[in-house]
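User: I would dearly like some help making sense of a protein record. This is the protein in question:
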Amino acid sequence: MDHRVQIERLGSKPADSGVRSLVPARERLIVALDVPALHDAARLVDALASSVTWFKVGSELFTAAGPQAVAAVRERGKRVFLDLKFHDIPRTVASAVDAAVRLGAEMINLHVAAGEDALREAVHVLDDIESVASPQSPVASSRITNHESRITFRPLLLGVTRLTSEQDGPEVLAAVVDAAARAKWCGLDGVIASALETAAIKAACGREFVVVTPGIRPAGAPSGDQRRITTPADAVQAGADFLVVGRPVLGAADPVAVVARMVQEMEAAIGKS
């Protein structure tokens, strides 16, 4: 059964039937293409083609290669999380989201700190999309039309709460949950947050509210400059819907083996949840 045609829009399902019950573990792992050049990214996508569905294009690669970075991933039949953390005046944020959609990004993020007007303007970019059934997106299917392009999916719009490089603490937890609540109030599909805050976010915003968790490290891996990190199993058990991993894969002698190990950890945790 193709899970991609079952999810019309994350957030439209009942609270007890979130993405976790529908999508296999390998389709919930996002590999960050935090590399300095397009050929490095293409090489990694090719190496992981049979193992990974989603790839994250962030500031480093997008600054180096621009829209070609997104195109290179999509041309290989993979899905893109465009991690540019838009934070600007409302009109600029909305225009950036519109441009990201037209590039083909299926996850897009923006800072909750940009303010409610910016969040709502970003949501309004997608409000007029007509939802239709389509196998082209694991999230939703919609059409936006202009003189240049026809978009046949509706991406996830996610709010950035706090960076995982920041220290942990009660004040961080409270701030993250508050940011998640504001993001939901403004119509976003979910947030980016560490696994340490995921359970509290789900309790406050509902299980259908999507949490994408960065800072994922296999057990025993060095933390680098990340502070609020966790293992794949712990993230899944906390309720994370998608997991983002970068350096443990990028720096591995055998990236395929690392991904396989992480997926196995996720599958074991899913079986226990």
Summary: Residues 3-268 form a domain with the TIM Barrel fold (CATH 3.20.20.70).
